[in-house]
Amino acid sequence: xxxxxxxxxxxxxxxxxxxxxxxxxxxxxxxxxxxxxxxxxxxxxxxxxxxxxxxxxxxxxxxxxxxxxxxxxxxxxxxxxxxxxxxxxxxxxxxxxxxxxxxxxxxxxxxxxxxxxxxxxxxxxxxxxxxxxxxxxxxxxxxxxxxxxxxxxxxxxxxxxxxxxxxxxxxxxxxxxxxxxxxxxxxxxxxxxxxxxxxxxxxxxxxxxxxxxxxxxxxxxxxxxxxxxxxxxxxxxxxxxxxxxxxxxxxxxxxxxxxxxxxxxxxxxxxxxxxxxxxxxxxxxxxxxxxxxxxxxx
Length: 298
Ligand SMILES: Nc1nc2c(ncn2[C@@H]2O[C@H](COP(=O)(O)OP(=O)(O)O)[C@@H](O)[C@H]2O)c(=O)[nH]1
Ligand SMILES: [Mg+2]
Ligand SMILES: [Zn+2]
Description:
This protein folds into three domains: 53 residues, CATH 2.40.50.140; 166 residues, 3-Layer(aba) Sandwich (Rossmann fold), CATH 3.40.50; 52 residues, Ribonucleotide Reductase Protein R1, domain 1 (Orthogonal Bundle), CATH 1.10.40. The protein has ten helices and 13 strands. The chain is an alpha/beta fold. 39% of the residues are buried. The structure holds guanosine-5'-diphosphate (GDP), magnesium ion and zinc ion (ZN). Zinc ion binds next to helix 9.
């Protein structure tokens, strides 16, 4: 029968079948690389249950350093990226997360957490302003929330827009450490701890060791919690794929005409339309420097 992987550890996977039954399965072949939210064919009659084969993936979200890549999840509808003003999010990491998603055809939304903290939130808004053109082109929304407010007198509201965005979708939640990803998941999914505890127990992993992503039921859809990170490598992406995460470049060339060189990297080439658009203030200068750093790093 068919099932989807809620989480995995080593050669084991915790899966849910179409009747809602859970099974602890083992991978037979060494050639299979499990990913959270893979659809698989299982033989639940053997003991332990066995994963026979993995079904084709619609997309795969990865991050990758020079020599190894980390599979975050497969078959994703959208990404929810958590940022905050305290500590101030890294705009470089945000640009990288956007690239990883867009290259795989994954849409997204940005959640600015800790809105109870007025000044940090204003700083976050200012830093996010350079992404306005990008997010508009991509049609990504930005929502402000306080998942776990600390400010006395601040009243946490329900967030119907956020709940609406998640309903019936499979959403991967991404965030650099400290932005409040765990707090957000606990706020959105009251049974989040119970569900992840069940996964940890089944796979015999420590409750707080999240080396693999874990998927929980939420709002008639699914939320996938990913391990926090301080680096988000994109070695698996080509320059053309990275450019999809900077849609301003294509728009600038449409408006101003193409760059003089067909293979312009928008680094420092003469006749670069993107550079001219940045100089004219039509695209954010910070975005161009993020792009240049990204190209130099990969
Ligand atoms: N003021 C404030 N603090 C928050 C909010 N959400 C989370 N925090 C705090 O931010 C810190 C990091 O939160 P956590 O959920 O562990 O972040 P994670 O590393 O992204 O999982 C913790 O001290 C939280 O209490 C919020 O909405 N407002
Ligand atoms: Mg956390
Ligand atoms: Zn150029």
